[in-house]
Write a structure and sequence with these properties.
The complex is a heterodimer of chains A (540) and B (289). Chain A contains 15 helices and no strands. Chain A has helices spanning 20-25, 30-58, 69-104, 112-131, 157-185, 198-229, 243-260, 263-277, 284-297, 313-341, 350-373, 375-381, 385-415, 421-448, 462-492. Chain A starts with 19 loop residues before the first helix and ends in a 48-residue tail after the last helix. Chain B is an alpha+beta fold. The radius of gyration of chain B is 25 Å and the shape is elongated. In chain B, the strands form two sheets. Chain B has a five-stranded mixed β-sheet with strand order 3-2-1-5-8. In chain B, strands 4-10-9-6-7 form a five-stranded mixed β-sheet. Chain B has helices at residues 2-21, 44-77, 93-122, 157-162, 259-282; strands spanning 129-136, 139-144, 149-153, 185-188, 193-199, 204-208, 213-217, 223-227, 233-239, 251-257. The chains are: A mainly alpha (540), B alpha+beta (289). At the A-B interface, helix 3, helix 9, helix 10, helix 11 and helix 12 of A face helix 2, helix 3, strand 7 and strand 9 of B. Bound molecules: protoporphyrin IX containing FE and copper (II) ion (2 copies). One copper (II) ion binds at residues 255, 258, 304-305 of chain A.
C-alpha cells in the first residue's frame, strides 16, 4: 500500500482487481459496490416503470382493453414493491456507499465484505419477487401493503414475496449497520459529528430508522407466512386473531419507511442548494435537529394510514395531532432551503434545477400530506387517487428527483467527465412538465371520487385519466434520456474532463479528491478546514 | 330547534362552496366530467367535511404562495448572471423562531375545527334505525335490523357485461357505468341512520362520497357509522378497499326517499319477503340421522 498517498495524482496505485468477475462480483470497494447499487436501481426503475405503463395504458380509457383485473392488481402491487425496495432504497444506499467515505475522509466503508453481501442479496431477492410474474396463479395482487386476509388468498406467490421481503430486509439492515459503523468510526480527525455534511447526517438517522423497522416488517410478513401455510391465525378473526393488527404492525414499519425514502433526499438537496447558491447552508444545526425530530415523530404517526379501520376517537385524535406536528420540522427544512437561496448568487445547472424542482414539488406533496392528516377530510380522501397523487409527489418528484439531482451533481466526481449539460437540462424540463401532467390531475380524480387500485372506471373520470396516461408515457420515455446521458458520460466519455472541484463553489471533502476519485478514497486522513465545509463554519 | 338553525347556517356556508365550484345539484350524487373538487354532499356531516377540506386547501394555497413566491423572487433576483454577490450569513435565530411558531399556530387553527367535526362524526347514538352492511367478494349485503328485510346488492347486469375484457360494448353507452347496482340500499331522509359494517371474507370499505365518509368493512369485526340525509335522491359510491379481482366492480347505490315513501317501500319488501321467509320456516327439517 502506498503510505504517502496524496490525492490529486498517482491514479495507478489503486490496486483495482483485474478481472471483470473479480472487479464486479467479488468487490469490497465502496465505489464499485456503490456503482452496482446504482445500476441495479436504474434497472429496477425501468422494470417498475414498465409496470406503471401497463397500469396507465389500461386506465387510458374506461372499459377493460388490455389486461384482466387480477393482472392489473399484480401490476400495482409489484410496481410499488419494485419501486420502493428496488429503485429508491438501493439508489440511496448506492449514493451512501459512494459518498459517505469521501465526505467523512475515510478510505472505504467500515465493513467492506458485508457491503458486498448486502448488495448481492438484492438481485436474488428481486429474482424471487419477479419470478412470481411467470408462475401459475400469477404475481401477488393484494397490494404492496399486503393486507390480510386478501394477501394470503394468493397461491404460492405468497411465500415468494415474503421471502423476497425477508431478503431485502436483511440487505437493508446490513447496509444500515455498515453506514452507521462507517460514520461513527471512520471520520477523519476533526470531522466532529456537528461538522458532518447534512447528507451524512440524514443517512446516519435513516440507518437507525432502517434497523428499527425492517425487523418489524420481517415479523409481520412471517406471521402472514405462518397464517397461510402453517395454520396459525394471527390475523384471522375466525381463529381469534385480528386483521387490523397486521395493519398496525405494517404501518409501524411503513411510516418510518417513507421517511427512510425522503431523509437522504433532504440531505442531497442540502448539499446541492448551497453549492449553486454560492452561500453556506442556512441553519445547519436546525437542519440536523429537524431531521432527528422528523425521525422521532415518524414512529408515532403510523395509524394515519388507518383512520377508516374503526379506531376509537381518542386514537384518531392522537394520530391526527402527531401527524400534523411533522409539518413543523418539515416546514423548517423548506424555509431553510429558501433562506439558503436568499441573497445567494445562483446558477442553474442540472443538479440545481432538480434540487429546486424537488423543493417545490415535494412541498406540494407535503401540503396534500397535511390535508390527509385531517381525519374527517381523510375519510373522504382515503384510498382514492388523491392519496396516489400525494405519495407520487413525495416519492417521484421528491425522492427520485433528489436521486437524479445527486447523480448529476456527483457524476463528474465519479467518472472524471462532465455529463452533457444541454441534455441534462432537457431531461429536467421534460421530466418536470410530464410528471405534473401525470400526477396533478390525479388530485382531481380523487376528489371527484375515483378509488385507487381499480382497473376500470365510470366515464366521468375519463378525461383526467387520459391526461394522466399521456403524461405517464411521456415521463417514461423521458427517462430513457436520463439513461442515455448517464451512459454517454460513463462509457463514451465524451464530456469535458472534470476538475477536482467540478462546480465553481462546491465545498466539502469529496471535492478535494481528484476527479475521478481515487479507488481508495482517503488513504491518509485529510485535514479538516472549517471554511471548506458546505455549511460554513458552524462554530459561531 | 337549535339543530335546525345550525343546519341552515351550514347550508348557507356550503352554498358558497357550491357557488364557487359552479356545479349543479346533480353533481352531489354522481361524479361529473372534469370535476375538480370534492362536493359538499347531502348531509350536515359531509358539508362540515367539505368546509374543512376547503379551509385546509386554502391555507395550503396561501402558504404555497408565500413560500414559492419568496423562492421565485430569490431565483430571479439573486442570480450570478445578474451580478449578485453572495451573502455569507448562515443563520438567523429570530427568523428561525418565527417560522417555527407561525406554523404551529396555523396547525392549531386547523386542528380545532377538525376535532369538532370528528367528535360529531363519532357519535352514533340516538339513531332511529340501524342498517347492517356486509361486504362480500364482490357485492354488498344490506340488512334492516329488526325489520326482517335483507338483500344482496351487486353490479348492474348491463355494466357487468360491458366491463368484460374485450366485450365490445362501449362503457359510454351504459348509464352509470360501474356505479349502478341491481338492488340499491333504500333509506329515509331526515332520519338518523346507524350503520353497522362488517365483511364476510376480506376487508372492504363502504363509501358514498355524498355522505361524507368511508368506513372499512372488516371480517370478524363490526364498525359503526351514521348518516342523516337531507335531500331525497340517488347517491352513488364504490368499494374503497382493495378486495381482490373485482374490487372495482362492487358499487354502492343509496336511494334516499321521504319518510312516507320509504315506509311504503319497506312494507312492500316485507310483504314480498313474507312467503319466502315462511317457506323457509315451514320447510320440513332435514332429516338428521
Ligand atoms: C408532511 C409530511 C407528510 C404527511 C403529513 C403525510 C401524511 C400522509 C397520510 C395521512 C397518508 C395516508 C393517506 C390515506 O391513505 O388516507 C399518507 C400516505 C402516504 N404517504 Fe405521506 N405524508 C407526508 C409525507 C410523506 C413522505 C415524505 C413520503 C415518502 C417519501 C410519503 C409517502 C406516503 C405513501 C407512500 C403513502 C401511501 C401508502 C399507501 O397507502 O400505499 N408521505 N401520507
Ligand atoms: Cu405515513
Ligand atoms: Cu373492494
Amino acid at each position: 500500500m502506498a503510505t504517502y498517498a496524496t490525492t490529486d495524482h498517482h491514479e495507478d496505485h489503486d490496486h483495482k482487481p483485474s478481472g471483470f468477475f473479480e472487479r464486479w462480483f467479488m468487490s469490497t470497494n465502496h465505489k464499485d459496490i456503490g456503482t452496482l447499487y446504482l445500476v441495479f436501481s436504474l434497472i429496477m426503475f425501468f422494470i417498475g416503470g414498465a409496470m406503471a405503463l401497463v397500469i396507465r395504458a389500461e386506465l387510458f380509457q374506461p372499459g377493460l382493453q388490455l389486461v384482466e383485473p387480477d393482472f392489473f392488481n399484480s401490476m400495482t402491487t409489484v410496481h410499488a414493491l419494485v419501486m420502493i425496495f428496488g429503485a429508491v432504497m438501493p439508489a440511496f444506499v448506492g449514493l451512501a456507499n459512494w459518498m459517505i467515505p469521501m465526505m467523512v475522509g475515510a478510505p472505504d466503508m467500515a465493513l467492506p465484505r458485508m457491503n458486498n453481501w448486502s448488495f448481492w442479496i438484492m438481485p436474488f431477492a428481486f429474482a424471487l419477487l419477479l419470478s412470481t410474474l411467470f408462475m401459475e396463479g400469477g404475481a401477488p395482487a393484494g397490494g404492496w401493503t399486503l393486507y390480510p386476509p386478501l394477501s394470503i388468498q394468493g397461491g404460492n406467490n405468497v411465500a415468494f414475496v415474503i421471502f423476497a421481503v425477508h431478503m431485502m430486509g436483511i440487505s437493508s439492515i446490513m447496509g444500515a449497520i455498515n453506514i452507521i459503523a462507517t460514520i461513527l468510526n471512520m471520520r477523519a480527525p476533526g470531522m466532529d459529528l456537528l461538522k458532518m455534511p447534512v447528507f451524512v447526517w440524514t443517512w446516519l438517522i435513516t440507518a437507525f430508522l432502517l434497523i428499527a423497522v425492517m425487523p418489524v416488517l420481517a415479523g409481520a410478513v412471517t406471521m402472514l407466512l405462518t397464517d397461510k401455510f402453517f395454520g396459525t391465525s394471527f390475523f384471522s378473526a375466525a381463529g381469534g386473531g385480528d386483521p387490523v393488527m397486521f395493519q398496525h404492525i405494517f404501518w409501524f414499519f411503513g411510516h418510518p419507511e417513507v421517511y427512510i425514502m425522503i431523509l437522504p433526499a433532504f440531505g442531497i438537496v442540502s448539499e446541492i442548494i448551497p453549492t449553486f447558491s454560492r452561500k453556506p447552508l442556512f441553519g445547519y444545526q436546525a437542519m440536523v435537529y429537524a431531521t432527528a425530530s422528523i425521525a422521532f415523530l415518524s414512529f408515532i404517526v403510523w395509524a394515519h394510514h388507518m383512520f377508516t379501520v374503526g379506531m376509537p376517537l381518542g386514537g384518531q385524535l392522537f394520530f391526527m395531532y402527531a401527524t400534523m406536528l411533522i409539518a413543523v420540522p418539515t416546514g423548517v427544512k423548506v424555509f431553510n432551503w429558501v433562506a439558503t437561496m436568499w441573497r445567494g448568487s445562483m446558477t442553474f445547472e442540472t443538479p440545481m434545477l432538480f434540487a429546486v424542482g424537488f423543493v417545490i414539488l415535494f412541498t406540494i406533496g407535503g401540503f396534500s400530506g397535511l390535508m390527509l392528516a385531517i381525519v374527517p377530510a381523510d375519510f373522504q380522501y382515503h384510498d382514492t387517487y388523491f392519496v396516489v397523487a400525494h405519495f407520487h409527489y413525495v416519492l417521484v418528484t421528491g425522492a427520485i428527483f433528489s436521486i437524479m439531482a445527486a447523480v448529476y451533481y456527483w457524476l463528474p466526481k465519479w467518472t472524471g467527465r462532465m455529463y452533457n449539460e444541454t441534455l441534462g437540462k432537457w431531461h429536467f424540463w421534460l421530466s418536470t412538465i410530464t410528471v405534473n401532467i401525470l400526477f396533478f390531475p390525479q388530485h382531481f380524480l380523487g376528489l371527484a371520487g375515483m378509488p385507487r387500485r381499480i382497473p376500470d372506471y365510470n366515464p366521468a373520470f375519463a378525461d383526467f385519466n387520459v391526461i394522466s396516461s399521456v403524461g405517464g408515457f411521456a415521463f417514461g420515455i423521458t427517462q430513457l434520456l436520463f439513461a442515455w446521458i448517464v451512459i454517454d458520460c460513463c462509457l463514451r466519455k465524451r464530456g469535458a474532463k472534470a476538475t477536482s472541484g467540478v462546480w465553481e463553489s462546491a465545498k466539502g471533502l469529496e471535492w478535494t479528491l481528484a476527479s475521478p476519485a481515487p479507488y481508495h478514497s482517503f488513504t491518509t486522513p485529510p485535514k479538516i478546514d472549517d471554511r471548506m465545509l458546505a455549511h460554513g463554519d458552524v462554530s459561531h | 330547534m337549535m339543530q335546525k338553525e345550525d343546519m341552515g347556517m351550514r347550508k348557507a356556508k356550503g352554498g358558497l362552496g357550491v357557488a364557487l365550484m359552479a356545479l349543479s345539484v346533480s353533481a352531489w350524487a354522481v361524479p361529473e366530467r372534469w370535476q375538480l373538487n370534492m362536493t359538499p354532499g347531502v348531509t350536515a356531516t359531509s358539508q362540515d367535511v367539505f368546509q374543512l377540506h376547503m379551509l385546509i386547501l386554502w391555507i395550503c394555497v396561501a402558504i404555497g404562495i408565500v413560500v414559492f413566491g419568496a423562492m421565485f423572487y430569490a431565483m430571479i433576483k439573486f442570480r450570478k448572471s445578474k451580478g449578485a454577490v453572495p451573502a455569507t450569513w448562515s443563520h438567523n435565530t429570530t427568523a428561525e423562531i418565527i417560522w417555527t411558531v407561525i406554523p404551529v399556530l396555523i396547525l392549531l387553527g386547523m386542528a380545532w375545527p377538525a376535532t369538532q367535526t370528528l367528535v360529531r362524526m363519532a357519535d352514533t347514538g340516538d339513531a332511529d334505525m340501524t342498517v347492517k352492511i356486509t361486504g362480500y367478494q364482490w357485492k354488498w349485503r344490506y340488512e334492516y335490523l329488526g325489520e326482517d328485510v335483507k338483500f344482496m346488492s351487486s353490479l348492474s347486469r348491463a355494466a357487468d357485461e360491458a366491463r368484460q375484457l374485450g366485450s365490445g360494448i362501449d362503457p359510454n353507452s351504459v348509464e352509470n357505468y360501474l356505479l349502478d347496482v341491481d338492488r340499491p340500499l333504500v333509506v329515509p331522509t331526515n332520519t338518523k341512520i346507524r350503520f353497522v359494517i362488517t365483511a364476510d371474507d376480506v376487508i372492504h370499505a363502504w363509501w358514498v362520497p355524498a355522505l361524507g365518509w368511508k368506513q372499512d368493512a372488516i371480517p370478524g369485526f363490526i364498525n359503526e357509522a351514521w348518516t342523516e340525509i337531507e335531500e331525497p335522491g340517488t347517491y352513488r359510491g364504490q368499494c374503497a378497499e382493495l378486495c381482490g379481482k373485482d374490487h372495482g366492480f362492487m358499487p354502492i347505490v343509496v336511494v334516499a326517499k321521504p319518510r312516507a315513501e320509504f315506509d311504503a317501500w319497506l312494507a312492500e319488501q316485507k310483504a314480498a319477503n313474507a312467503p319466502a321467509t315462511d317457506a323457509v320456516v315451514q320447510a320440513p327439517a332435514p332429516t338428521k340421522s
